[in-house]
Amino acid sequence: MEFIFFLAAAVKAGTCLLYATLGEIISEKVGHLNLGVEGMMQMGAVIGFIAGFTFGNPYVAVLCAAIAGAAGALIYGFLTISLKANQVVTGLTLSIFGVGFAAFFGKNFVGKKVPEAITTFFAPIKLPLLGDIPYIGQIFFNQSVYVYFSYILVIAIYIYLYKTKWGLNTRMIGENPVAADASGIPVDKYKYFNIALCGALCGLGGAFLSLVYISIYPVNVVSGRGWIAVALVIFAMWNPGKAMLGAYFFGALDIASFWLQQYTLPVSIYLFTALPYLATVFVLIFTSMRKSSNKKEPAWLGKNYFKEDR
Amino acid sequence: MLHIVKKDVPKTREKIIVRVLAVLAALAVASIIVVFAGANPIELYIGIFQGCFGTIHRFAATIVKMVPLLVLSLGVMIAFKMRFWNIGAEGQFLMGAVGTTLVVRSFPNLPLPIMLLTMVLVSFVFGAVWLMIPAFFKARYGTNETLFTLMLNYIALTLVTALQYDFWKDPAANGMPKIANLPNNALLPNVSGFNLSILMAVIIVLAMYYFMNRSKIGFEISVLGESENTARYIGINVTKTIMIAALISGGLCGIVGMMQITGVSGALSTEITGGLGFTAIIVAWLSGLKVPFVVLNSFAFAVLLQGASYIQTAFQIPGSVADMIQAIILFFILGSEFALQYRFVSDKTKSEVA
Prior knowledge:
The complex is a heterodimer of chains A (310) and B (354).
Chain A lengths: L1 H28 L7 H19 L2 H25 L4 H20 L9 H6 L3 E2 L9 H5 L1 E2 L1 H19 L1 H11 L1 H6 L4 H27 L11 H11 L4 H21 L14 H16 L20
Antiparallel strand pairs in A: 1-2
Chain B lengths: L1 E5 L5 H25 L4 H13 L2 H26 L7 H18 L5 H30 L3 H23 L22 E2 L2 E2 L1 H18 L1 H11 L1 H6 L4 H28 L10 H11 L4 H24 L4 H23 E5 H7 L1
Antiparallel strand pairs in B: 1-4, 2-3
Helix pairs in contact in B: 1-13, 2-3, 2-12, 3-7, 3-10, 3-11, 3-12, 4-5, 4-6, 4-10, 4-11, 5-6, 5-10, 7-8, 8-10, 11-12, 12-13
């Protein structure tokens, strides 16, 4: 029984990662490696909390968080798409900016509680029928609406990327922008749209932490989870479905060290935190060894596209 | 309709003008945040300047902040020259510091000169190995090194966390999770704030300048960065070149770990890097991968870092404001590169040229 609670907690812990990972998958699918995930999550977390605290309305809070994340992403987008700046360097800068942004604007809110209206809105709700399935129901269907929304997003993003014309075009740009451009796809528009979407999702991931996961606003609410999301994209091999499994696995590892404190273990608990990254490294190595192109990163990932070069 | 086309290589004068304009524009935008934080922007910017050059001790502090950044940037630069995106400088930095601490723990009684020499060597090896792992997989299977080296940063960080909270926790620290301070025979000698790492950095700069511009292997690295096919065609051993570049790149970042704990922090901890490994990537990139510009830009960033820590105490401005100012300046400089590399032409002029 205790293990079921652990798994339910792992789903909750993995949800913030899932949002950010889905976002980064979309960005990388269009060929843009955005290392600003941590920054965008921080911006979403702080703006989401401030909006929620000020207005006490969950919808407003979530919307503001998504806008904040998207705004961060658009700085990155403008620099890398229109001004052709280096993606890695711009992304890292965005992370520095976001961390500073959150620390500055969140300073006066440290120690404040999430308003009652929001905690009630996001409290776990047991779904009828689904919630009654033994084990599965307790793990997946006795959660916050914020978690349920992420289930819908996984399906929606899968359909968007693999079953729609827009998704096909997006993936084509990530694989070969020259061909995409030649076939008349407006490359830059697609890039802006997908990068902004990535930012909005990262913002939502951050706000999940500040509005649902914690009850009192801490000094640094995201504290490095954005980097785990970057790892998770690789671990999930750029696949939204696998991102879901991976997010819960990484979520479990995130809380494992806390749960394992009650047992005496032969190894240091602190080494557990390295597991997500080690697992990612192994995935990275094995996918490159296998050379199957549908499980690898998009071919133009990290490279900018300059129309007149072609 | 307007088109954008690539420009010829810009002149140094043009580069300087564009960058200065970018920094000024950035400071203007950053002023909004400064006003938000309740300070006068002009006074604050003057404060940054005074915090770096005001007294000899502050200047020493600026130089001490510059040294690790400079050496890290040089390390990162070599890998970048080869189009090998080593963003794992943080990890190599930490591993170098782990190696250094290991030396002291294993041989605590070595005399200072031998101790320092051993620490330099071991930290070099630790940093180098940390980069040669992804380099090996890159050379052998084409494994994406950007993501691999990024992951290794966090693996190194958890290792240091485990050392600090568990394996190497100082029993004399009353339960505080810290690693014991280094003994005196393992600290860099210093004269009024300037320590020996400055001399080490000068030697490294000169060696790197020679290496990149005069040596055969430096040339091979540049060719490989330009085109792998060309490199193979003229008979360069690609795997060997990648491994050597990784050895030097990771090794230099490793040495910084040694410099930092023996010269600045006095003990290994999870905090020692302060994100410098990431800043170094930005410095190396903005310097166009050229040694003299790396020196210049490292100094400029050190001024920002030292200025930031000074205004925190002098103006009661939180450090987060300095982070944001730094990021805004970077955004503007990154954006201004566009003005140096591309220009607009209208359809009419284009057809005339053609």
